[in-house]
Amino acid sequence: MECTVNWTGPAAATGSKSGMTFIAQTGSGHTLVMDGAPDEAKPENGGANLAPRPMETVLAGTGGCTAYDVVLILKRGRHDVRGCSVKLTSERAPVDPKIFTKIHMHFTVTGKALNTSAVERAIAMSHEKYCSATIMLGKTADITTSFEVLEV
Description:
This protein is an alpha+beta fold. The chain has 2 domains: 3-45, no CATH class; 54-151, GMP Synthetase, Chain A, domain 3 (2-Layer Sandwich), CATH 3.30.300. The protein has helices at residues 54-76, 116-130, 132-137; strands at 3-7, 22-26, 31-34, 80-92, 100-112, 142-151. The longest helix has 23 residues, at 54-76. The radius of gyration is 19 Å and the shape is elongated.
């Protein structure tokens, strides 16, 4: 797996003298834009709020990784899963490096006659065995989960 990240340089279009926008080109040929938050105290260090923050993309990628697993595990078990969303909330260390210290994931899984124990098992399997992102972040963050199953 590979990825190249390039700084776009000063953001003339937004009037910023520094610009903190980065464009990532993934090995699979996709593009991801990231930016920093505006910093009124130090404008030269801030972004223009044009895209997600880099750590937001880490959190989003983790949610995507685990949701992918949950859906795949349920489908392989021949469960009639129709939807899966996961809302992630997190806390970060107050000082640099501002690593994630807590992450909570709340899954909402929809389907026809879904067994709650199958959903619970799929989430556990993702977090214990398959989701690289969750397992990696679990080395520094306390990761908790909850879920609800909705009938469609």
